Automatic annotation (TrEMBL):
Domain of life the protein comes from: Eukaryota
Record's protein name: Unnamed protein product
Tagged with keyword Transferase: yes
MF terms in GO: 2-aminoadipate transaminase activity; aromatic-amino-acid transaminase activity; pyridoxal phosphate binding
Pfam families assigned to the protein according to its UniProt record, in alphabetical order: Aminotran_1_2 (PF00155)
Keyword Transferase set for record: yes
GO biological process: aromatic amino acid family catabolic process; lysine biosynthetic process via aminoadipic acid; tyrosine biosynthetic process
Record InterPro entries: Aminotransferase_I/II_large, Class-I_PLP-dep_aminotransf, PyrdxlP-dep_Trfase, PyrdxlP-dep_Trfase_major
Cofactor(s) needed for function: pyridoxal 5'-phosphate
Keyword list, A-Z: Aminotransferase, Pyridoxal phosphate, Transferase
Amino acid sequence: MTGPLNFSSFFSDEANARVGSALRNSLKLVNDPNIVFLGGGLPMTQYFPWNEISASSPAPPFANGIGAVPTSKDEEVTTTIPKYNAPGQDIDLCKSLQYGATSGHKQIHDFVKEHTEKIHRPPYQDWDVSICTGNSQSFDSAIRTFCNRGDYVLIEEYAFPSSVGNLEATGVVSVPIPMDDQGIIPEKLEEILNNLKVKPKFLYTVPTGQNPTGSNLPFVRRQAVYQLARKFNFLIIEDDPYYFLQMAPYKKDALEEKLTGEELINDVIVSFLSMDLDGRVIRLDSTSKILAPGARFGWITAQKHILEKFNELHEVNMVTISGFTQSFLNGLFQRWGQEGYLEWLCGLRHEYSIKRNACANAVDKYFPKEVTVFSPPTAGMFFIIKFDAKNHPKFDGDVSKIEDALFQEAIKSGCLVIPGSTFAVKPFGSKKQNENTEFFFRGTYAAVDLEKLDLGLKRFAEAVKIQFEIN
């Protein structure tokens, strides 16, 4: 292992203007028994109106599936957190509900760092993790840490609208990178970089189960993209909430067996973080897609020098994440352990494989093949169904008109799917009319049970047949 490169020159004016809070630093002395602490606005813990909180959760190895209701005490674990003197590695309420470390309490910080080491093995020494409230907040922090108004960033040509909107609102110029069914096309990225007159600060990518396309960037492409980052010297923001929702390729009437934890580690595609010799990757992880969105829990992995700037920002815009979340999640993690957490992730992957397969079966069963194109995804929560406006009997050259007509027809039929144009990143400085007549709709197999999934796709297929006048 070697030390990371210094990327201080990438920091924004805002990040450079920030300094660590002397008041926050003084809070480190609050637990010193030799200090009478009169220095901060910390409420008395006696006045916290919770003496104890408790939660019941399924227990590994989740033999009956991760969604099964426990039928005995052996199939569940109970997490009980007292206000004072919590046992073992639990975080008692007098600590978690008080102002605490911005980067997270030690117990849960250490757990996710150990998990990151186990999965990704960053190939340099000076890295760490910092707890946050999820990847949306983490990406917002990345923009503010690295970008000034007018800076350029690279982004997939279809992306989550809030991410694109955040870039636009802060005056950052988004440069969309062409994609195909496997994600970013490295050759197209290199072509853009060769012609770009302003060096981009970073590439923002959702490489696994990409939202909205469902694409899963292969290892060879990740290697190629990383080498381009080194060649042209830009950072990579790896937003990867779907990383553990990778699945085997779809085969009709076949389903892979549930993997073990070690099999899962060996099967997932290597992350950008895992190949990062320079410390130029800032990885964003979240529990929103694998535990619960409302937990608002995630973490940023990067070299320590970069995390310092994130933490200086978080000290003023976040302070710390919810104490309840830290106590409950840490309690669950400590009871599951690293192996139990991997068991959960294996179970989740298995469940999503079932739903992906059901989705693919329904598309094959209901949709007219002469006008639809569908590639079953190998990761994530999303799928897309493609169409060509030229096949529409009323096509007059306006693709958006056909897309909207199909959208309205689907709603009339009782199914909501999202038009692909909703996610399109506007090309910067391009005045050439797009001659591509293809368009797509994004759906998800994650949000409903198998029966409703089949019904929804059947209804969408009926809308397609009506619009394209297919009997």
